[in-house]
Design a protein that fits this description.
The complex is a heterodimer of chains A (243) and B (123). Chain A has 243 residues and is mostly helical. Among the domains of chain A are: 100-139, no CATH class; 147-237, no CATH class. Chain A contains ten helices and two strands. Chain A has a two-stranded antiparallel ribbon with strand order 1-2. With 123 residues, chain B is mostly helical. Chain B has a single domain, classed as Phosphatidylinositol 3-kinase, accessory domain (PIK) (Serine Threonine Protein Phosphatase 5, Tetratricopeptide repeat, Alpha Horseshoe). Chain B contains five helices and no strands. Chain B has helices at 11-30, 34-53, 71-79, 86-99, 104-117. In chain B, helix 3 (71-79) packs antiparallel against helix 4 (86-99). The radius of gyration of chain B is 14 Å and the shape is globular. Classes of the chains: A mainly alpha (243), B mainly alpha (123). At the A-B interface, helix 1, helix 2, helix 8 and helix 10 of A face helix 1, helix 2 and helix 5 of B.
Chain lengths: 243, 123
């Protein structure tokens, strides 16, 4: 138990150090960007914040060097480094959150913190209410498996896993592919539940890779082989299927 | 709150908006909020389109985000600057794919795959 405590503390400390280093890198990059923008605007003799005389005045719309009270105005507002928007994931709440989205976020965060060292004991040490999510948190860090292993596991349901259609089911049925092919053994794999969420979300999100469409919309006019190729690659790239 | 007028925004304002949208995407992915994720993604495409339309293609301003501490911001900055800095953007996508920090690692890997397949032609 002591060893597990130390391991957990080490994982939390490592995460904090990594976050701090990233913040420093960002501050340096943002400062470089601000300086470049200042130089750029000085070269253009342009200050986006320079006020104009209000409409209704004889010289309305003209640039002015003072604000409404006659005070001189400052320089431009290029200020990225002053505000370090890290948006670090929130702490895992000790009490069970009220909404499903907050609980999902906490479960994903627990899997990120614990990584492949996740065990039920360590998960409940982070927060007792996470116990029902423990199998999903542990499975998220499963090593990649072969296609045969993923297909064979379909016959063994497990709470940390979902049955996943390699070629998306509803879109394939809509395109007229027969049910026995769509729900056939070649198209079904058992994958970690939270990886299933990630892959489904990826299919539904607009992407520059697919001309701004979601992969789901892009594939809707494509044949079975193309859909299968994309589906298998999504499993590989998400660390579910061995390369 | 009314959406900012992209046409009258300065380049630093557009970069700041890009960051805010990336952070929103990060939260949406963590919380499984698909509508929020899609809305923020489409708004980000508009920001990018506006930067591209500026004299000299100001998407290069997004290169400063390659060091941003948030993984989703880095991911989107890399994807959306492939046309202006292909080698650096690909290198960053590879780093994200290798990080095994999912789901962004999977997304970066799919992006590189789509490039290799000729499905993704950045413009």
């Amino acid at each position: 138990m002591l060893a597990e405590d130390l391991e957990l503390q080490r994982a939390l400390a490592l995460r904090a150090v990594t976050g701090g280093l990233l913040r420093l890198r960002w501050l340096a990059a943002a400062t470089r960007f601000e300086l470049a923008m200042h130089r750029h605007m000085r070269a253009l003799k342009y200050n986006p914040d320079q006020p104009r005389v209000p409409r209704g005045n004889p010289d309305g719309g003209q640039w002015t060097e003072t604000d409404g009270n006659g005070n001189p105005v400052g320089s431009s507002r290029v200020r990225l480094a002053g505000d370090v928007p890290t948006n670090d994931p929130p702490e895992i709440p000790k009490e069970r959150p009220k909404t499903a989205s907050e609980r999902s976020a906490a479960a994903k965060l627990a899997s990120k913190i614990l990584s492949s060292a996740a065990t039920v004991a360590k998960i409940t040490e982070l927060a007792v209410w996470l116990a029902p999510y423990a199998s999903g948190i542990v499975s998220y860090n499963d090593p990649p498996k072969s296609l045969d292993e993923l297909r064979q596991a379909v016959s063994t349901p497990d709470p940390g896993y979902d049955i996943h259609h390699i070629v998306e089911r509803s879109s394939a049925l809509k395109s007229g592919y027969p049910l026995d092919v769509v729900d056939g053994p070649d198209n079904l794999v058992r994958i970690p539940r939270m990886k299933h969420w990630d892959i489904n979300s990826w299919y539904g999100t607009p992407a520059p890779e697919f001309e701004g469409q979601s992969p789901r919309d892009y594939l809707s006019g494509r044949n079975w082989d193309v859909r299968m190729q994309v589906g298998l690659e999504a499993l590989r790239q998400n660390g579910v299927l061995k390369r | 709150m009314s959406p900012p007028n992209l046409k009258t925004s300065t380049v630093p304002d557009l970069v700041a908006l890009f960051i805010a949208l990336g952070l929103d995407q990060y939260q949406a992915r963590l919380r499984n909020e698909q509508k929020r994720l899609n809305r923020a993604t489409l708004e980000m495409f508009d920001v990018c389109k506006e930067l591209k339309a500026r004299a000299g293609d100001q998407r290069s301003a997004l290169l400063s985000l390659y060091s941003h501490p948030n993984l989703q911001v880095r991911l989107m900055a890399a994807k959306l600057t492939l046309a202006v800095a292909p080698a650096a953007a690909k290198q960053l996508l590879q780093e994200i794919a290798d990080s095994k920090e999912y789901p962004q690692a999977g997304d970066a890997g799919m992006s590189l795959w789509a490039l290799k397949q000729g499905i993704f032609r950045p413009t």
